[in-house]
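ingest -> validate -> predict -> emit
validate: passed (alphabet ok, no gaps, 250 aa)
predict: started
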Amino acid sequence: MSADKDTTHFGFSEVPVTEKARRVRGVFDSVASRYDLMNDLMSLGIHRVWKRFTIEKAGLRPGMQVLDLAGGTGDLAALMAPRVTPGGRVVLSDINEAMLRRGRERLLDRGVAGESVEYCLADAETLPFEDESFDVVTIAFGLRNVTRKEAALAEMFRVLRPGGQLLILEFSKPASPLAPAYDLYSFRVLPAIGKLVAGDDASYRYLAESIRMHPDQQTLQATMEAQGFEGCRYHNLSGGIVALHRGWKY
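emit:
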């Protein structure tokens, strides 16, 4: 966000702060129906490995209360719900109604339903939950789309119980040897796949740009620490193309 707080980035473009959420919503309205197929194509299926790694680090146990922010089509929720039962729940939350609807459909298809999963249409910057409501908060590939990341992190801290953990899975800054090939893939191949499969190259061009505008590993860790998280650390995955950041509320 710029110094005067009136504008922020939408990919490589500068837009009014009040416009970003609407534009992001438009992107995900467009890609919702093909989101899962595109994830598999874009990552060659490796996104599933990244997500499983995240769940292993979450340390889930029966009875835990979990909030999955920007949970989209429910990949993390499907993995977490069986681990918190009996007695626990996963709240699948997203700001985009189309993505949340798709997530509910997919979880029902996979037999993940009942009291272990709830659904909530919510903005990560203004969460509709009481203080200290959750043992774990997760957000996978969603933080870079949030307009005010500091506000969202403050909300995540607020709703975590003492001893609770935040896990942020997000694209990050790859190691230098990978950068040229990664740039070529992101700005040439990815939009082409989006146009061919989803009929929408512009949305996938935005997604590539949003990755470049997201803070690198050290910057995001410092931002988490500034919002009160302790014991912060990150794990580089696939050479830093993706990183899992973790922090605790003590």
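The chain has one domain: 20-176+204-248.
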